[in-house]
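User: Can you predict the 3D structure for this chain?
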Amino acid sequence: MTWVLVALFIFNEEPMVMSDNILYNSKQKCDAAASTRRAVLEATRPEYMWEAEYWVWCSQVPQEV
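Assistant: Here is the predicted structure, written as structure tokens:
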């Protein structure tokens, strides 16, 4: 199974979705990266984005059938 980190931001009612463009071969590695990303986002959040909401999670990459 392959996993990818996904981040969703909502700022001024506009959604923005991003990924770190890294594929993880285990959910544990992806979860660790997501935890680090949350901490970095919180520590570096610009003052103008204090009202923004964001979520960071891991999602399994669908396998071809």
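The two ends are 13 Å apart (CA to CA). The mean pLDDT is 90.
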